[in-house]
Design goal:
The complex is a heterodimer. By secondary structure, chain A is an all-alpha fold. In chain A, 70% of the residues lie in helices and 0% in strands. The chains are: A mainly alpha, B alpha+beta.
Chain lengths: 73, 387
């Protein structure tokens, strides 16, 4: 969680806008049909949740006092 | 927020930033409690089909046979049955199913009866069996009513629509504020070991920014739904009035002189091959003219099934008067319903809807915590207490 050098706006907004675009595209794909399209809709609309969980797991690992998992003496 | 103000973004002056913060704070504060209510009541509503099936209510899947929108017994007989069950009155709507023989008939005391005076009867169009009156009651109905208008009628609905607009403004201002906050942080950063305030801030920023697309879609479609009745009134008084302009000024048709609804359907279907009826509005109601049966067809593909094309048939003579697609604004209203309810992509999408709803509750709650912490800190500072 180190402090980065100042990032340009497009770097800060890149991931957020890509996620917003993909998840909304998923919501619309789901409207256009069933079957494969519903599956695609779930995958795309589920991306934000996957990112949320991944960020949380990474942060937990990074902040764990004992990343090796071996018992401390 | 103090952190951000101390390191303004290159494209945002400190003054602009303060203005966006004020927008975010006030739109958020004004709407948060209502949005929390909407998220909490909306959560079980996502699964209303499944919950109703579990509680033993009649579901469409339990009625085998061809869809009532395609075939079955004559409509005139089913309408007569419904009026008889009601002990008189006039038919107001017929609702078709695209999946099962279930068909519903709404009956009221007069053609322009208010929603509160309407009663809904359901039948099997294959067998003619009476499937009972559909009554709005129970926990799910209370949740739905809270979610739609908080039991306050149209003004409650418009108020929640405004809260939806405030939510959209909070989201947009939140994205602007995301820039200075994240200027030195990687996407997805959660500083779990930092102070509680930084932890709440990181959660608020991350959960808020990843749910951006979904929250905007559900928020704005909720706003469109909240203003759905005025949109329908606007259609009836504008486009519909133009479609039946030849009979403008004629007195409303006496229900005793309504012609056959089956003849009307046949006339409309001759002009709309391949389209499936979704519902019929009888003369004098919110969805028709004073003299016409309005038969609303839906398209044959999943996308066009949300797009309605009304055919107006003279209720007395059974002749087709006109047939036109609904205007773009009203089409948007039709598409707003599935996009708000999340009920169009199977159980998988419903589960995602619920999880994204919970993520939104997390954003709202963390926003409230951040505001409370900052308020207390500033309050102490003002009294000269140590920070």
């Amino acid at each position: 969680m180190s402090r980065l050098p100042a990032q340009p706006t497009r770097a800060i907004l890149g991931w957020p806008l890509a996620l917003a675009f993909l998840s909304v595209a998923g919501l619309i794909v789901g409207l256009t049909g069933d079957g494969v399209r519903n599956f695609a809709a779930c995958l795309l609309a589920g991306l934000p949740l996957a990112v949320l969980v991944r960020s949380w797991l990474r942060a937990k690992r990074a902040s764990a006092p004992n990343p090796g998992g071996t018992p401390r003496s | 927020m103090a952190q951000a103000a101390s390191q303004p973004h290159p494209h945002l002056s400190a003054r602009t930033l303060r203005a966006w913060m004020a927008v975010h704070k006030w739109t958020g504060l004004v709407s948060t409690l209502f949005l929390l209510m909407l998220c909490l009541t909306g959560l079980p509503l996502i699964f209303h089909d499944e919950i109703e099936a579990l509680s033993g209510e009649l579901t469409e899947a339990a009625i085998p046979g061809p869809a009532s929108a395609r075939e079955g017994l004559p409509l005139d007989g089913i309408v007569r049955q419904a009026v008889a069950l009601n002990g008189g009155g006039v038919p107001l709507f017929i609702g078709f199913s695209q999946e099962s023989p279930l068909i519903t008939v709404t009956v009221g005391p007069a053609p322009d009866a208010p929603a509160g005076a309407m009663r809904l009867y359901s039948f099997n169009r294959q067998t003619g069996a009476d499937l009972g009156e559909v009554v709005d009651e129970g926990v799910m109905h209370v949740l739905l009513q809270l979610h739609v208008d908080m039991f306050l009628g149209p003004w409650g609905m418009y108020f929640l629509g405004l809260m939806g607009l405030a939510f959209a403004a909070a989201i947009v201002s939140g994205v602007v504020l995301y820039l200075p906050f994240m200027r030195h942080l990687a996407f997805g950063t959660l500083r779990l070991e930092a102070s509680p305030r930084v932890r709440w801030l990181d959660w608020h920023n991350l959960a808020g920014i990843v749910t951006l697309g979904w929250a905007l879609v559900v928020g704005l479609t909720g706003v469109i739904n909240a203003f759905g009745d005025p949109l329908t009134d606007h259609w009836r008084e504008g486009e519909l009035a133009r479609m039946v302009a030849a009979r403008a000024g004629d007195p409303p048709l006496d229900p005793a002189r309504y012609g056959s609804i089956d003849a009307a359907m046949a006339a409309a279907q001759a002009a709309a091959p391949g389209l499936s009826p979704q519902f019929i509005g009888f003369p004098g109601g919110a969805w028709s003219s004073p003299r016409h049966h309005a038969i609303f067809f839906q398209g044959g593909t999943p996308l066009t099934s949300h797009i309605l094309t009304p055919a107006l048939v003279d209720a007395e003579t059974g002749e087709l008067t006109d047939m036109r697609r609904m205007p773009a604004l009203n089409q948007a209203l039709m598409l707003s319903k599935p996009l708000h309810f999340g009920d169009y992509g199977g159980i998988g999408l419903k589960i995602l809807w619920a999880l994204l709803d919970i993520a939104t509750i997390w954003v709202l709650a963390s926003g409230l915590v951040l505001w409370w912490q900052r308020r207390n800190r500033l309050g102490f500072a003002a009294q000269g207490a140590p920070a």
